[in-house]
Amino acid sequence: MIITKNTKKDSKNIYRTSIFEVFLFPCYNITMSNEPVEKKQREHHVKSLRLLRLEKAIQTIAYPSVERLMKELEVSRRTIQRDLEELKIYYNAPIEYDRMHKGFYYTDETFFVKNVLITEGELVALAGILPLLERYDNTPLKDTITKVYGTISQMLPNEVEVQSSLVNNVQFISDPLPAIDADVFKKIFEAIKVHKTVSFGYRSISSTEHTPHTLDPYKIYCKKGDWYAVGFCHKHNRYSTYNLSRMKDLVLLSDFEPDPDYEKKVHIDPNFGVWNNELPVFKFELVFDKSINTYILEREWHKNQKCFQDDEGNVHLTFESNQLQETLYWVLHFGSAVKIVGPEELKKLYREEVGKMGENI
Fold first, then answer.
1. Backbone angles phi, psi at 195, to 5 degrees
2. Which CATH number fits domain 2-169: 3.40.50.1000, 3.40.50.300, 1.10.10.10, 1.20.1050.10?
3. CA-CA distance, 108 to 127, in Å (whole number)?
4. How far apart are CA 185 and CA 137, in angstroms?
5. Is pTM, for the whole model, over 0.70?
6. Is the dihedral of CA 268, 213, 179, 324 positive or negative?
7. What's the rounded Cα separation, in Å, for the pair 312 and 137?
8. 60, 86, 92, 274: which is deepest, by most CB within 10 A?
C-alpha cells in the first residue's frame, strides 16, 4: 500500500479512511490496486530501494553512465532509463546528462530522495494514539491537533510506503461525545491558569434549563472524552464538579486566592468517577459469574483492586472508593452476571434501582 500526498482534488483508485486521513496522514491519499496486496507491497518495496540506490549512485559516482548504473544496480538498460524518468517526474530530481563526461549528475548537490518506509509495527504504534486523540474531538483542540499533523505531513516526503494492510483492516469505534462550546473551553483553562472566578449558566443532568453559577476553578479532568472542571462553588458553598459541555456564557470575573488545602478538601476517585462528594470510602465486594470471568480478569478496574478466580470459575473483585453512585451505575450494566457481597449501601441502591426499572416494563 502506498500513501502519497494529495495534490489533486480528484484522483482515481483512492480509498479514503477518515481516521487515518485526519490524524495520521491528513493530506495524503491512500492508493489501492486490484493486484494482491502482498505482491503490490513487495514490488513497490523493491522499487523504492532501487530508486534510493540509484540516487546514491548518482551522488557518489562521478558522472555515471547508463552502463555503469546497470552494473551497480544489476538491472536492465530499460529499467535504469525508466527509474531516471521517475526520479525526475515524481521526485523532482534535478538530474542532467553531461555530454562531455557522458554521464548523469545532480545540478543541485543538496538534493536527495525523501522516502519513508513504515513497518506494520510502526503503523500499529501510530494507530494506538488515535483513540486518545478522539477524546479531543468535542473540543477546540481538535483543530489545533489537526493543524499540527498537517504541519508534520508537510515535512514528510511526497511518498510514504506502508509495509502493511493494517489501514484496511482496522476501524476505531468511539463513544458519542457531547459538544463543548469553544469559548467555554478556552476561558476555563485561562481562569485556572490566572486564578480567576468565573460565572456561567449550567444545565445539570436532570434540568430543563441553565441556571447561574459562580465557581473558583482549580483543575480539569478528562474522563473518556468528557471534560470536567472542579472548583469551589459559591452557590452551594462547597467544592463541586461541572461538566464543560453543560456550561454556557462563561465570563471571567475577579481574582481569587487559591486554597492551599484544596486537595485535602476534594474527594474524587478518578478510577470510578470525578464527582466530588463527602461520602466515606466503601469497600466494594463483588462476585462475577464465570460466563464473563475472562472479561473481568483481563482488566484493571481500580488501582487498589484485589481480583481472583475461584474453583468454580467465578471472579471475586474487591476495591475501595467513595464513588457509591458511579459504582452502582457500573455494576448495573453487568445485569445478572454480578452478585453484590457488600457494602449494604450499594445493595440498597441496587434494589431500589432494579425496582424502578421493573416498573418501567
1. 60, 60
2. 1.10.10.10
3. 37
4. 13
5. no
6. positive
7. 44
8. 274
DSSP string, 34-61: SS-HHHHHHHHHHHHHHHHHHHHHHHHS
Please give the mean pLDDT across all residues of the chain.
81
Tell me the mean pLDDT in the region 276-286: 91
Whole-number pLDDT of residue 111: 77
**Among candidates 346, 348, 352, which has minimal Cα distance to 326?**
346
Q: What is the pLDDT of residues 221-262, one digit of tens each?
A: 988 888 999 999 999 999 999 999 999 999 999 999 999 999
Distance, CA of 112 to CA of 265 (rounded, Å): 60
Angle between helices 37-60 and 77-90 (to 10 degrees): 90
End-to-end CA distance of the chain: 52
The DSSP string of 80-148 is: HHHHHHHHHHHS---EEEETTTTEEEESSTT-----EEEEHHHHHHHHTTHHHHGGGTTSTHHHHHHHH
Domains of the chain, residue spans: 2-169, 182-265, 282-359
